[in-house]
Specification:
Blueprint: H1 2-39, H2 63-74, E1 77-82, E2 85-90, H3 93-101, H4 104-107, H5 114-119, H6 133-146, H7 149-154, H8 156-180, H9 191-208, H10 220-236, H11 241-244, H12 256-284, H13 295-303, H14 313-331
Antiparallel strand pairs: 1-2
Helix pairs in contact: 8-9, 9-14, 10-12, 12-14, 13-14
Length: about 325
């Protein structure tokens, strides 16, 4: 009888303890939620269901003009909802400095966007890829071997020769026009196009040793390359419906994913042709002098035959060349024709 009573008491105690576990977990989760909630930046009011704050960007005002009044209302740091995604908005240089110095590991990565998947070789383009071993290794190669002060000095002759050549071509246009007509010594020149051609020649010579544009003709290969680069750069700035509402990704509203696949295929073929030409030149000639090396030559000497984090050598080189051209053109503040 005593044994039965003792067993009953033990069973009751165990059952009571088991029943208290969900309550403890609930209270722990509630306290953790409250603690984390206190640390979250305030969320701006006015979010729509599902769409979040996306409708406020539908007007003609640029994003910083739209966010200005929100910053005045919610302070130097707040959050907005872009569909199912949350975006942290900083409007204070001290907070921004802290984010990119003290807490730089937290903000070093990049969101996995549809454009990254379709245009950036699935993350091989390190400027758009996520933070990790591959990103760190490529950043080290680019900062130590490609975009360095030494490399800029070595490529100075490219910039000088392109400026001189472009000025000579302008003189050729002027002299040919004045010989045809003696009524005026003036010739109209589209300086926007002239600077675009000059910068594009300069960037491509530094990147892949190509010079496409001249005073007489614009070859078909140049038009093809410019069109592909223009479309790639445009699509990199597109935010698709699937980026903010992932469940709608496969509907491809606006046909952006299809356009990205077509542009990526075209650009990949062009990059592949450039890479094939460089490999062919390397087999025909001896080692290229450092001063005459373009970026693709440097990458071939460093990466040929290697692979990193599942990406083969050709993919890494093409992806890195693409982002270098993109960065150089952006640095020159050029709008590709």
């Amino acid at each position: 009888m005593d044994l039965d009573l003792s067993s009953l008491i033990n069973a009751t105690t165990i059952a009571l303890l088991i029943s208290l576990i969900p309550l403890c977990l609930f209270l722990f989760g509630l306290s953790k939620f409250a603690h984390s909630k206190n640390k979250e930046a305030p969320i701006a009011k006015g979010a729509w269901p599902i769409l979040g704050h996306l409708p406020i960007f539908s007007g003609k005002q640029p994003p910083h003009r739209v966010l200005g009044p929100l910053a005045d209302k919610f302070g130097p740091i707040f959050t907005i909802k872009l569909g199912s995604k949350h975006a942290l908005i900083l409007n204070n240089w001290e907070i921004a400095k802290e984010c990119f110095t003290t807490h730089d590991m937290v903000v070093s990565s990049r969101p996995k966007l549809i454009s990254t998947e379709h245009l950036a070789y699935g993350g091989a383009v390190f400027g758009f890829g996520p933070y990790g071993p591959y990103w760190r290794e490529l950043r080290k190669i680019v900062t130590l071997e490609i975009l360095t002060n030494r490399r800029i000095v070595q490529q100075q002759h490219v910039r000088v020769s392109e400026v001189q050549t472009s000025i000579k071509e302008l003189f050729y246009v002027w002299s040919s026009k004045t010989n045809e007509s003696h009524s005026s010594n003036y010739v109209l020149v589209d300086l926007k196009q002239w600077f675009t051609h000059l910068t594009f020649n300069m960037v491509l010579r530094i990147a892949v040793g190509k010079r496409y544009f001249g005073a007489k003709t614009i070859v078909e290969e140049a038009q093809r390359s410019v069109k592909a680069l223009k479309e790639i750069m445009r699509l990199f700035g597109v935010i698709t419906v699937g980026d903010v509402i992932p469940c709608l990704k496969w509907f491809d509203f606006g046909g952006h994913m299809k356009a990205m696949d077509e542009a990526s295929k075209e650009m990949d073929e062009i990059l592949g042709e450039w890479l094939k030409e460089h490999r062919h030149k390397r087999t025909l000639s001896e080692k290229v002098d450092d001063q005459d090396q373009d970026i693709m030559d440097v990458l071939l000497s460093l990466l040929d035959g290697t692979s990193m984090e599942g990406f083969d050598c050709d993919t890494i080189i093409k992806a890195t060349i693409l982002v270098c051209i993109y960065l150089l053109l952006r640095f020159c503040m050029i709008k590709i024709i």
